[in-house]
Amino acid sequence: MSLRNDPNQLQSVLIDMDGTLVDHFQALYRCYRYASEQLGNEPPSHELVKRSVGGSMPVTIRKFFPEEQVEEAIRLWSEHFDEIHLEDVILLRGAKELLDVLQRREIKTAVFTNKSGEHTRNICRNLGLEDYFEFALGAGDTPYRKPQRELSELALQRLGTKAENTILVGDSPFDIEAASIVNMTSFCVPTGSHTREELAEAGADRIFDSLQEIADWIESCSKSS
User: Fold this and answer.
1) What is the CATH number that goes with domain 7-23+90-224?
2) Digit-coded pLDDT (tens) for 13-22
3) pLDDT grade, residue 4 (50/70/90)?
4) What is the C-alpha separation between 122 and 152, in angstroms, rounded?
């Protein structure tokens, strides 16, 4: 039986950061607005930025600035984010409960994100979550980004587990592809930039309304086994 139906073979979980574990969108939006204003541009709308994030900032920022401004926009965005990255961080519903369940079941857990690895680790420390994770792997830690196969393979290697015993929990098609490219199971939540319908169309193995639902599902399956 596959992990999508039975968690009893589950050995490890990779969890995305933005839109999955935390809502950090307001701080991200402030950085796009800051860079736009510094360059004399009309800032993109809140909704447009929210619909665009997920593939890492250097990719997303090109949607909002002409090529001749991109390098300076990245510098300005990064400068501002360094200053405010511990602000406006909201732990999403069920995050703590899911992490508690995984820890009790001794399931290896790591953060797997296109957010800066350094900023991600700072945020986890600030939220008191670092002891739940084997590691946090993010942008800048390697030359790779989700959904490149090399990043998924590296995460599995560092966990010391196999793809067939691992679930990737995320909120976007990037997460689904990063899982499927190495035959991991993908569980998604529509708490980020994509709707339940979009996640289903992208091929998510299962879709839950929140991390709390995933925690409840693991607990109920383990009790019935």
Assistant:
1) 3.40.50.1000
2) 999 999 999 9
3) confident
4) 22
Q: Quick one: CA dihedral 67, 69, 75, 78, positive or negative? A: negative
How many other C-beta atoms are found inside a 10 Å radius of the C-beta of residue 220? 11
Structure tokens at 102: 């995984």
What letter would DSSP give residue 94?
T
Distance in angstroms (rounded) separating the CA atoms of residues 166 and 55: 22
Q: What is the pLDDT of residues 58-68, one digit of tens each?
A: 889 999 999 99
Global pTM exceeds 0.85: yes
Identify the sign of the CA torsion 80, 174, 126, 142: negative
User: Domain ranges in the chain?
Assistant: 7-23+90-224, 25-84
CA 82/CA 67 separation, integer angstroms = 23
Residue with tokens 């019935």: 224
Radius of gyration of the chain (CA): 17
Give the CATH number of domain 25-84. Answer: 1.10.150.240
* Greatest alpha-carbon span in the chain: 61
Give the Cα separation of 101 and 7 in Å (integer). 12
Partner residues linked to 109 by β-bridges: 13
141 residue type, one letter: D
Q: Which two tokens stand for residue 4?
A: 């999508």
